[in-house]
Amino acid sequence: MDFSNKVVIITGASSGIGAAAAVLFAKQSAKVVLVGRNETKLLDIAKKCKDAKGIEPLTVRADLTNDEDVKKIFDETIKHFGRIDVLVNNAGIGFRGGIRDGVEIYDRAMATNVRPVYLLTSLATPYLVQSKGNVINVSSVAALKPIKDVAFLAYCMSKAALDQFTRCVALELAGDGVRVNSVNPGATKTNFAEAAGMSKEQTEKLYESRDQNNPLRKMAKSEEVADLILYLASDRAASITGATFVIDNGEMLV
Ligand SMILES: NC(=O)c1ccc[n+]([C@@H]2O[C@H](COP(=O)([O-])OP(=O)(O)OC[C@H]3O[C@@H](n4cnc5c(N)ncnc54)[C@H](OP(=O)(O)O)[C@@H]3O)[C@@H](O)[C@H]2O)c1
């Protein structure tokens, strides 16, 4: 898979799945745009990307819940690289809580996991139409079934919304030669649990349960999820659009 001269924007590139995807795209000679809030982590990943093929990435510090920050990502990308070929909508947060925990969690989950994806994709569309590019949304198995053991109601709803967004926009843009797909991971070892406010103990318990109960008796690594993102973004997946790909060691089966 060769991404030479292709410009790939990855949100949430400062950590976990997004960071792994950024490095993998850079290894395939892509010009990567790394988006996140934590500048120190972004610069660390930028160095790893540069080390891959010597191509200097663009880093954009942006809080995706802020529309002006989102617009800045496109202004800076076009000023710097002049085009956009792939948008990876990966940034997201797990919001813990159930129906008894108030509606604010719902607002925050939608504001972080759904609204920015809508705005980012709409701003990217004219450039993607020009480049016949594509979008990858990072969803979750939580879009397809409730998370066991921990209440994650608003998070599950936000990812379900994302999956329908994938299908609707895939249909809308197919005539323009733009593909839109989704990767739906099961539990993956990243900073996700900590960012969702889970204690070390709770996180270890969750990992242990997935390691033991997933039919394949393990969890996926960020790099494996990144591999799937890369494949879907590549020309090898030229006939795939509107699809949601689960990568979960069989978690959905039990
Ligand atoms: N890990 C799992 O078990 C799992 C399972 C299924 C789906 N997913 C999905 O995978 C995606 C990546 O998560 P991860 O597991 O890699 O977790 P992670 O290590 O916590 O990474 C999350 C990334 O999202 C960014 N982010 C969060 N809120 C943001 C905001 N308001 N503005 C800009 N960036 C923001 C973070 O950037 P900063 O740290 O720089 O703020 C970070 O780079 C998420 O969409 C998540 O829902 C994860």
Structural commentary:
This is (apollo) hypothetical protein. It comes from Parnassius apollo. This protein has 254 residues and is an alpha/beta fold. The protein has one domain: Rossmann fold (3-Layer(aba) Sandwich), CATH 3.40.50.720. 48% of the residues lie in helices and 14% in strands. The chain has a 7-stranded parallel beta sheet, sandwiched between helices. The two termini are 34 Å apart. It binds NADP nicotinamide-adenine-dinucleotide phosphate (NAP).
Task: Name a few traits of the molecule.
254 residues; alpha/beta; Rossmann fold; 7-stranded parallel beta sheet; 9 helices; 7 strands; 48% helix; globular; binds NADP nicotinamide-adenine-dinucleotide phosphate
SSE order, one letter for each helix or strand:
EHEHEHEHHEHEHHHE
- Give the full name of the CATH homologous superfamily: NAD(P)-binding Rossmann-like Domain
Radius of gyration in whole Å, from Cα? 17 Å
Shape by Cα distribution:
globular
* Proportion of strand residues: 5-15%
Q: What does the average pLDDT come to?
A: 97
Strand order of the largest sheet: 3-2-1-4-5-6-7
Outline the biggest β-sheet: 7 strands, parallel
Number of domains: 1
Uncertain runs with pLDDT below 50, 5 residues or more? none
- Report the span from N to C terminus: 34 Å
Identify every distinct bound molecule in the structure, by name, code or SMILES: NADP nicotinamide-adenine-dinucleotide phosphate
Keywords: Oxidoreductase
GO molecular function: oxidoreductase activity
Protein name: (apollo) hypothetical protein
Organism: Parnassius apollo
